[in-house]
Amino acid sequence: MNLPAKKKYESARQLERQAKILAKTREMLAEIGYARTTIRSLADKAGVAPGTLYNLYNSKDELILAAVQELLSSLGETVREQSTRGLDRLITKQAVNGATVRENPEYAEAMTRALIGTQRNDKLRNLLYTSTIEHDERHLQIAIEQGHLRTGTDVQLLARHLQAQSWGITVAWVMDTVALDNIAEETIRSVTLTLLAVATAEGEACLRELAERFGLPEWPLC
What we know:
Layout: H1 12-32, H2 39-46, H3 50-56, H4 60-82, H5 87-103, H6 105-116, H7 123-145, H8 155-174, H9 183-196, H10 201-213
Helix pairs in contact: 1-2, 1-4, 1-6, 2-3, 4-5, 4-7, 5-6, 5-9, 5-10, 7-8, 8-9, 9-10
């Protein structure tokens, strides 16, 4: 059975209220975690009635997904503004994500723990994990077309490895084996070392420039 279409905010005032709701949702996730967050507690946090949230979203999960999606869209726009396509986009994404974790550690930890607890085909997993693999596949293919990665590189396999490394560093931070301030540096280093294995001479030069831009230790990265 299809759920009924929800009301959409259109006026500037309504859109501002919705943005506040989504921001407060992220704050609550950071404060008390995914499991303890409820529609009623979210309504109290946002200063609205529970019915207001149900007018916009069918469930807590749908509201949380919307809050996460808004943040990811904002991060994606930042990455696009700061980078060109291909390797530049891939490395810049890691830098921006690392900075976001550093600035919002409680929220980042809540999302990491929620992701670990998801099941196969879960919407949150698809949003946080699967969709970003598809993004990396596109830019790996572009890097091949630009002559930065070797022809014949398996972009699907490589994208999965890059994603696993990125989340692996975040999980290591949650487990207190990587310092919060070092997340971006450690992730960029890990991703760069993997890309070097399939990089052309031009690609290696590009990665070297990116490492310098983001303040990584002296080349080679080891």
